[in-house]
């Protein structure tokens, strides 16, 4: 975790999270409408998915990060006056998509949006007291690592992701207690 704004931005363009895609044990994704009500839907989707994966104890942190990533995508990656912001053409994919991926010891939340622009954080103390603009600081505080990468091929935009470490306990097994 960074201690000031300048160190926080260093990990931004890390590419993909440090995980083995072949070992993913579960994944889920949902398309989100280009409206702020989508944040509530993203939290509900996250709650249902984490419950299915027996990760209810991680809901508070993960839900907060998902909310911030989705809000940032809606606020900064979609122009307010873009034609079709609320309606998609036939065959057009939704502009924002939430992906949740679980490995044995990691959970990744990733939000895809159509903007190629780098996520940016406010860095001054004056900005930190503002009502908005703290989303990436919260993402950094509540996740174990995070970053972003541009999309390639036919997909335009970027993916912003956050990684959460999970206990090495298999689902349903009792949690290990620390030795005295």
Task: Walk me through what this model shows.
The protein is built from 5 helices and 5 strands; from the N terminus they run H-E-H-H-E-E-H-H-E-E. The protein has about 180 residues and is of the alpha+beta class. Strands 1-2-3-5-4 form a 5-stranded antiparallel β-sheet, covered by helices on one side. Helix 2 packs antiparallel against helix 3 and helix 3 packs antiparallel against helix 5 (about 135-140). Mean pLDDT is about 75; it is low at about 1-15, about 125-130 and about 175-180.
Would you summarize the structure shown here?
The chain is α+β, with helices and mostly antiparallel strands and 180 residues long.
Q: SSE layout and pairings?
A:
Blueprint (H helix, E strand, L loop, with lengths): L4 H4 L17 E7 L5 H15 L6 H18 L19 E7 L3 E8 L11 H4 L6 H8 L2 E6 L7 E8 L15
Antiparallel strand pairs: 1-2, 2-3, 3-5, 4-5
Biggest pleated sheet:
5 strands, antiparallel
Count the beta strands: 5
Count of helix runs: 5
Pick out the low-confidence regions. Answer: 1-13, 127-131, 173-180
Structural class: alpha+beta
């Amino acid at each position: 975790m960074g201690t000031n704004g300048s160190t926080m931005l260093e990990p931004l363009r890390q590419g993909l999270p440090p995980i083995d895609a072949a070992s993913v044990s579960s994944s889920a994704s949902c398309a989100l409408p280009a409206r702020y009500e989508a944040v509530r839907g993203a939290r509900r989707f996250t709650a249902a998915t984490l419950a299915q994966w027996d990760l209810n104890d991680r809901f508070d942190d993960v839900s907060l990060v998902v909310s911030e990533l989705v809000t940032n995508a809606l606020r900064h990656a979609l122009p307010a006056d873009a034609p079709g912001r609320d309606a998609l053409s036939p065959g057009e994919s939704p502009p924002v998509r939430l992906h949740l991926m679980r490995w044995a010891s990691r959970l990744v939340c990733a939000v895809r949006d159509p903007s190629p622009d780098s996520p940016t954080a406010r860095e001054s103390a004056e900005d930190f007291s503002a009502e908005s603009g703290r989303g990436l600081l919260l993402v950094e505080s509540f996740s174990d690592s995070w970053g972003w990468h541009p999309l390639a091929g036919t997909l335009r935009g970027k993916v912003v992701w956050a990684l959460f470490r999970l206990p090495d306990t298999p689902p349903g097994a009792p949690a290990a207690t620390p030795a005295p």
